[in-house]
Amino acid sequence: MSTIIETKETMKSRREKFRFPYYICRGKTRDLIVRLCEIDPHLQDAIENETGYKFAIQINDLQKLYPMKRSTQYRYKAVTEYMKGALDIEMIILTSANKLTDSSVTIIKVDDE
Predict the structure, then answer these.
(1) What is the pTM of this model?
(2) What is the mean pLDDT of the chain?
(3) DSSP 3-state of 108
(4) pLDDT digit string (tens) for 1-14?
(5) If we measure between CA atoms, which residue out of 24, 3, 1 comes closest to residue 66?
(6) pLDDT in tens, 21-55
(7) CA-CA distances (angstroms) from residue 96 to 59, 66, 68, 76, 100?
(8) Dihedral angle over CA of 8, 111, 35, 54, nearest 10
(9) C-alpha torsion angle, residues 11, 12, 17, 21 (rounded to 10)
């Protein structure tokens, strides 16, 4: 499994490509949202146009995008709550325990590098 190691300058240049509203949070949460926008342009459109959006992502794919010590759904809870409350975007994290039953939800896949 490859991990993404970046300098502050690299992440800053990635963030500058997106036109987020002024109230988008800072730090790690914003970095993860930027990485998600890079693989799903509909997410970026929803943030810029302030419209609701719902998508799902496998925990393993989320771990590839933004590694944490333990890849549990709880580790990403702050991001999912922020996106739901401030942006009206629902991120469903799929694990082996929960399966997606709603067919209208977009499932994001991360390509292996």
Answers:
(1) 0.71
(2) 76
(3) strand
(4) 344 445 555 656 66
(5) 3
(6) 555 666 777 788 888 988 888 998 888 888 899 99
(7) 9, 19, 18, 16, 11
(8) -170
(9) 110
**Spatial separation of the C-alpha atoms in residues 51 and 61, rounded to whole Å:** 25
Residues 6+ apart with CB under 8 A from 75: 68, 69
Enumerate the β-bridge partners of residue 54: 90
Encoding tokens for residue 54? 């719902």
Tokens of residue 2, six digits: 């490859």
Contact 62, 73 (CB under 8 A): no
Predicted confidence at residue 53, as pLDDT, reads: 92
Q: Is the confidence at residue 80, as pLDDT, over 70?
A: yes
Nearest to 95 by CA among 71, 67, 69, 65: 71
Give CA–CA dist 111/113, Å, rounded. Answer: 6
